[in-house]
Design a protein that fits this description.
alpha/beta, Rossmann fold, five-stranded parallel β-sheet, four-stranded parallel β-sheet, binds phosphoric acid mono(formamide)ester, binds norvaline
């Protein structure tokens, strides 16, 4: 059966760890003369319903570095589900390319693509989760600390797509995960239920709090993301009133472990969820984290293409 990469929750801890170790190896190889052309003759179609810098460029470069190609399909180009049904798009593309990556509004749409495609489908962000980001985040934490087990990872802000994938990879790999989010901005119940199952197997602890100051105590990782995700623009003003107490600033960082790292999937709204002082300060790993998208996704592609 074909493999897809739609959610961290679909993969076992062993598979996730194997992909992280592969990412480490491919990264080393990349900086030591380059990766061999294992994806030669392989083409990735990248469907975007929303804008992107990191996902688009890192996937494209991952394919190029490994001898393959990538095709960018812009939001208006194929009219996914509008000009043509998702099922038909999936079946047509399956005859042209070897793997599909899709960034969609509704998570249902990426599931529908995967259902009908006869080739692997990768979720490049939906309203529910962002598994490619989760892999790059885990890689960044793994490189910094050597292990995820027993670390305290804290997400401050909206219980959104990025938070869900981070919670799932932490709970799969044994890191303790805490979120401080305002009332009304909790993660979906299903994501929490799944995380509890993973945590009981891995021994990780989960905490769902309101107070960011309580949440960051003893944290090795503080993570934040935009207050308003793509597709929620109509709520921007309302969210600007709710989220300021959740800003990751120097005071909040000083309340965590002294060697805490600060992460953000980017794009950042500096002065809102993250101050310049923190983003550009000694604890920040936001750029290595962004660069790790490239290396983590090479591992995901490798696993799906079985190169
Ligand atoms: N973090 C992330 O997915 O960035 P882009 O929206 O630029 O792809
Ligand atoms: N939560 C953000 C992540 C962007 C990479 C969004 O969905 O817009």
């Amino acid at each position: 059966m074909k493999k897809d990469f739609l959610a961290i929750s679909d993969y076992s801890p062993a598979d996730l760890q194997e992909m992280l170790d592969l990412a480490v190896r491919l990264k080393k190889e990349h900086f030591n003369g380059g990766n061999p052309p294992l994806f030669k003759g392989k083409v990735l179609a990248m469907i975007f319903q929303k804008p992107s810098l990191r996902t688009r460029i890192s996937f494209d470069m991952a394919m190029r570095h490994m001898g393959g190609d990538a095709l960018y399909i812009s939001p208006d180009e194929i009219g996914l589900g509008k000009r043509e049904s998702i099922a038909d798009v999936a079946r047509v593309l399956s005859g042209y390319v070897n793997v599909i990556m899709a960034r969609v509004f509704s998570h249902e749409h990426v599931l529908e693509l995967a259902k009908w495609a006869s080739i692997p489908v990768i979720n490049g962000l939906s309203d529910y989760n962002h598994p490619c980001q989760g892999m790059a985040d885990a890689l960044t934490i793994y490189e910094k600390f050597g292990n995820l087990k027993g670390l305290n990872v804290t997400f401050v802000g909206d219980g959104n797509n990025v938070a869900v994938s981070l919670m799932h990879i932490c709970s799969k790999l044994g890191a303790n995960f805490t979120i401080a989010s305002p009332e009304g901005y909790d993660m979906p119940e299903k994501a929490i239920t799944d995380a509890k199952t993973f945590a009981s197997a891995s021994g990780s602890q989960l905490h769902f709090l309101r107070d960011p100051h309580e949440a960051v105590k003893h944290s090795h990782v503080i993570y934040t993301d935009t207050w308003t995700s793509m597709g929620q623009e109509a709520e921007t003003e309302k969210r600007k009133v709710v989220f300021p107490p959740y800003q990751v600033n120097a005071q909040l960082v000083s309340e965590a472990d002294k060697d805490v790292i600060v992460m953000h999937c980017l794009p950042a709204h500096r002065g809102q969820e993250l101050t310049d002082e923190v983003a550009d300060g000694p604890h920040s790993v936001i750029f290595p984290e962004a660069h790790n998208r490239l290396h983590a996704q090479k591992a995901v592609l490798y696993k799906l293409l079985e190169a």
